[in-house]
Amino acid sequence: MDVVTFGETMVLFTPESTGLMRYAHTYTRKFGGSETNFAIGLARLGHSVGWISRVGNDELGKAMLSFVRGEGVDTSCVRLDPDAPTGLYFKEIRNASDVNVYYYRKGSAASRMTAADLDEAYLAQARYLFVSGITPALSESCREMVFEAIRMAKASGLTVVFDPNLRKKLWTEEQARETLLAIAAQSDIILPGLSEGTFLFGETDPVKLGERFLSLGAKIVVLKLGEKGAHYFTPEENLHIPGFHVEQMVDPVGAGDGFAAGFVSGLLDGLPLPEAVKRANAVGAIVTMVNGDVEGLPERSDLKRFVESPGEEVM
Ligand code: ATP
Questions:
Q1: Which of 1, 131, 268, 284 is the most exposed place for a label (fewest CB within 10 A)?
Q2: Buried b (16+ CB within 10 A) or exposed e, 9-34
């Protein structure tokens, strides 16, 4: 196994119509979860990846499991919980630039995960552990699970990659700041967005932010900058890697997860850092061109074609 990740994936209902949710009658059913988006991104690029989670022992949980498994992600460590439902969320598209989400996830099967859901031998045979900042916000037992997973990963020599994935709806700002900084301080690689960095450190300058994250002890920090690409930092150097020009952005959600998949894929392939960040930028950009979180995730041939098409880079 190249990579293991864990966290909650929910059933996502997207309305066919725009306007207030109370008027939406017809929905498309999909699945949404940062960690499975990331895992599916890696699987499409040919890497072996496992996802640890709990889903309800219900029809939607079983549908989710076969979806993720069908995308080539190992789900042998996902448990069906007989006592709690699979979490749901609904999108409300008031207009193209005003999209809300409503969660029905409190008490969900995944929020009941504990450190006992982690199989140390399963983790130990991987090279990377991918941790998202959503999981510790789900419950106290999920918070404990995150720190236990990091402890196990470090004991077995895995590289810990952390995406803060700030979700302000799930916890207070103080709780979020304290926990996300504590996880960042135990991570080898941190992949924050600019706004997450500003939230955590009260700083807006990308270079100063990169240095603040590095001072926590990380070996690599890659700050995501939307269409401008990303800026990576190590204790020795830092460099801005420009993003790819996207003619028509359709749906930015999931770009960060695709970015993480592209970056870890680059590291697994032994690419130098600038090349790994370039691959991450490419996957993030490709994801924004397609509606949905995973629908746009590229296979190797798509990625190659996109990167080789001329005139695509913007400063
Ligand atoms: P998410 O909303 O998925 O959590 P994020 O806030 O973590 O995203 P972003 O900076 O929005 O991260 O996007 C991640 C990466 O995707 C960027 O660093 C960039 O490489 C790529 N990307 C995002 N938006 C665009 C865009 N409009 N054009 C080109 N590339 C983009």
A1: 1
A2: bbbbbbbeeeeebeebeeeeebbbbb
* Domain locations in the chain as residue ranges: 3-8+34-83+114-306
Nearest CA to ligand 1 atom 5: 256
Per-residue DSSP letter, 87: P
Q: Is 257 a catalytic residue?
A: yes
The CA 112 to ligand 1 mean position distance, Å, reads: 31
Q: Is 281 in the pocket of ligand 1 (CB under 6 A)?
A: yes
Q: Quote the CA–CA distance of 261 and 279 in Å, as a whole number.
A: 9
pLDDT(46) > 60? yes
253 C-beta closer than 6 A to ligand 1: yes
Tell how far the Cα of 258 is from the centroid of ligand 1, in angstroms. Answer: 9
For residue 223, give both structure tokens: 């700050």
pLDDT above 50 (res 315): no
Give per-residue pLDDT as tens, 22-39: 999 999 999 999 999 999
The answer to whether the CB of 3 falls within 8 A of the CB of 40 is no
Give the number of other Cβ atoms within 10 Å of residue 244's Cβ: 21
Enter the ipTM. Answer: 0.96
Mutate which of 165, 190, 288, 293 for ligand 1 pocket (most atoms within 8 A of beta carbon): 288
- Could you report the per-residue pLDDT of 214-266, keeping only the tens digit for each? 999 999 999 999 999 999 999 999 999 999 999 888 888 899 999 999 999 99
CATH class of the structural domain 3-8+34-83+114-306: alpha beta
